[in-house]
Amino acid sequence: MEELFIISGNFLVQVTYGVYMVFLNGVFNAGVNPLFLVVFGNSVTAVVLLPFALAFEKKKWPSRLSATLLSHFLLLSLGGVTLFQALMLVGIKKASPDVASAMPNLTPGLIFIISACLRFEKFDACCWYSRAKIMGTLVCLAGVFTMCFLQGTSETPRLANNWSFLLAKPLTLDKAINRDWVLGCFYLLAGVFILSCTTVLQAATMLKFPAPLSLVVITSVMGSSLTALLQLITEGKISVGPTTMSITSIVAIVLLGGVVMGTCMAFQGWCITKKGPVLVSIFCPIQTVSTVVVSAALLGQIISLGSLAGIVLMFAGLYIVLWAKKNETFSMLYVDAEPEVLVEDVEKPLLS
């Protein structure tokens, strides 16, 4: 029953993330400022997760916080909350929910490359598993670029058969739409790269602060404060934006998003302690499929061949990386001139 609960729960979590991506696209179209959602959304998430952190992780807190640990908290808040979420939300607004949900599939491969460069993880050019992880990362990256540049803007497929509209539409409008699309894809790619860097830093931080839920609460509060400061600097005030939505609706959206995301993160944290990060990562592509299906059903967006090809490449690349990392956990070594035996690798990969 526990395994059934874990599998069905992870499936539901990824579907929820996919629907939430499409929901955010509608919120942004109504004029809500993405930075505003980062500020108040993370505040709600911190409030939701705080009781869980106090109940399950209070004994794991260190007696004192060192300057190094505080600097890690600051970097995780700046990168993993403020920059990552701001770039992802702006990317959703300029590109599409489909591409935004597909980009995080790059994370395992990027984490491997960053970890190998920093020597947090082994990289042996002669090892087949290391080569497989590089190949999987490249395949996944090819899928992302295929989806970004072959799918095109969400407006183009719906208007492909309307020749009179295409002839009447100003050329400058086409250029502006395409420029926003490419810029949105760049924002999403930059956000995923920052997420990968902060994930490596988070793995190092967890060695001295083994309390994942508490870490999310701390970084959410600090990230919310940093994002509020960023909005004050760039816009002069903390504003909801020129939206047509009522304040009541916006507050309800923020509360709903914070509660749902906080609950999903708490569940995934529990699953990681039970089965490990690899099992949770395997379900990530379901988010992309859910987003594409919901976008097609609710927004009328055409699922193009470029989009399908990109999804297939990303799934293939992601599972190649996860398969290689899972099989790399154990290696064949000689011990005291005895026959080969399976022993656990000293440098355990971050995602296995």
Task: Report on the architecture of this protein.
The structure is a single chain. The chain is an all-alpha fold. It has one domain (2-329, 339-344). The protein contains 14 helices and two strands, in the order H-H-H-H-H-H-H-H-H-H-H-H-H-H-E-E. It has helices at 2-29, 34-57, 67-94, 97-102, 107-117, 128-151, 155-158, 163-168, 171-206, 212-235, 247-275, 277-282, 285-299, 305-327, and strands at 330-333, 341-344. Strand 1 (330-333) and strand 2 form a beta hairpin. Helix 2 (34-57) packs antiparallel against helix 10 (212-235), helix 5 crosses helix 9 and helix 6 packs antiparallel against helix 14. The longest helix has 36 residues, at 171-206. Residues 153-173 and 330-352 have low confidence and may be disordered.
Any chance you could write out the topology, listing elements then pairs?
Elements: H1 2-29, H2 34-57, H3 67-94, H4 97-102, H5 107-117, H6 128-151, H7 155-158, H8 163-168, H9 171-206, H10 212-235, H11 247-275, H12 277-282, H13 285-299, H14 305-327, E1 330-333, E2 341-344
Helix pairs in contact: 1-11, 1-13, 2-3, 2-10, 2-11, 3-9, 3-10, 5-6, 5-9, 6-14
